[in-house]
Design a protein that fits this description.
The complex is a heterotrimer of chains A (about 190), B (about 120) and C (about 140). Chain A is mainly α and about 190 residues long. Chain A is built from eight helices and no strands. The chains are: A mainly alpha (about 190), B mainly alpha (about 120), C mainly alpha (about 140). Chains in contact: A-B, A-C, B-C.
Amino acid sequence: MIDIFITVILLAFLAITAVSIVRMTNLFAIIMLFGIFSFLSAAIFVVMDAVDVAFTEAAVGAGISTVLMLATIALTRDHHEKASTSHRPWLPLAVVIVTGAALVYGTLDIPWFGDPEAPAQMHVAPYYIERSVPETGVPNVVTAVLASYRGFDTLGEVIVVFTAGIAVMLLIGGRRRKSNARSNEGEEDDK
Amino acid sequence: MDFIIGHYNYWIAIFLMMIGFYTVISRGNLVKKIIGLNIFQVSVFLLYISMSTVKGGAAPIITAGVKLYSNPLPHVLILTAIVVGVATTALGLALVVRIKEAYGTIEEDEIHQQDHSL
Amino acid sequence: MTNNLILRVVSKSLIPLIIVFALYVQFHGDYGPGGGFQAGVIMSAAIILYALVFGLDAAEQVIPSTILRILASLGVLIYAGVGVVTLFLGGNYLDYSVLGETRVAGQHLGILLVELGVGMTVFSVMLIIFFAFAGRGRP
């Protein structure tokens, strides 16, 4: 019971943080709030027994993502979002409300939270839990599934990460060439 | 009451997803759009982890004396998705940096104005 | 930030601890929460902290970008190479059971090697990305 109570409160915090991220215009504050958002979601993952996921989210979402976003606003020297003129809020709001309502309608016959009889718990999960120690000798089932049973999957993910690294290196690695683009700031032209 | 608790996680996930979606389609600042995408992403993580939870279950690390464990498969999928997510976020931010260097702004409206595309 | 005494002292004592923790997470991932993905990110966080406090040039002396590029490719190569080795030993691709004398020993070795590859790639790709962003702002 107590864990449900904690989850409810943390999820409410998460929703409030997300709303304030949307409403703010100071990009630095937004990025800091996004770090808090990541830590909150990591805490929720711990309560929901997903310790490996929480670990990753705390290290990646709150650590690396925040640093990269701060580096980006330092590079773009743009710390405030400008009020948009061509974007009116009503059409996006209507789209979002209609989509959200359709999704909520879809949850009405979904298995309840924590239901041990849900179809998601019935098929491969009991196999992994029963067989991982006799077959691989690894007590952490997540590691066993990640590296052994679904090794192909993880190989693909590692290659995606590698490719993203190469792409970032190609885009902004190396020194800036003398820019002949339409730059508003003269100081950039002589680098 | 049980009905609300049984669906609360899903509703919050949908709410976050819609917040992220709204940010992506209604804001002009490119960094904020990427943050919206990240919120959208976290909502998907939340949905998957909610589905993996079993009431009274333990974290899926086999320990003597524990019978009921949460479902490890969504954990694996989301674990890799988080790391791939930060890699793709970095790629998006790199594109933002290049756009700033080429156009001198990261506001979508001003970019369209310079391109005469709207 | 390079002149801040408190930051320098605290980070000097923290960085070794972060690296040791990353190694623990890497090699204890079979028994507790952790694994290659997390260890790689924590390890790169240690170097990023060093770069933030002591400057980018100092961090690039600690780990030059050529080495990072080699490490990133090597990680993927180790992962895919384990699969090729299992093929030659008569198993399926990435079926580690044939690597050791017993099935469980083979699986254990395979998981260890694969996680090592994952950790190396994630560590170096995160640092490559960080150095690319940070180096862009350099005059």
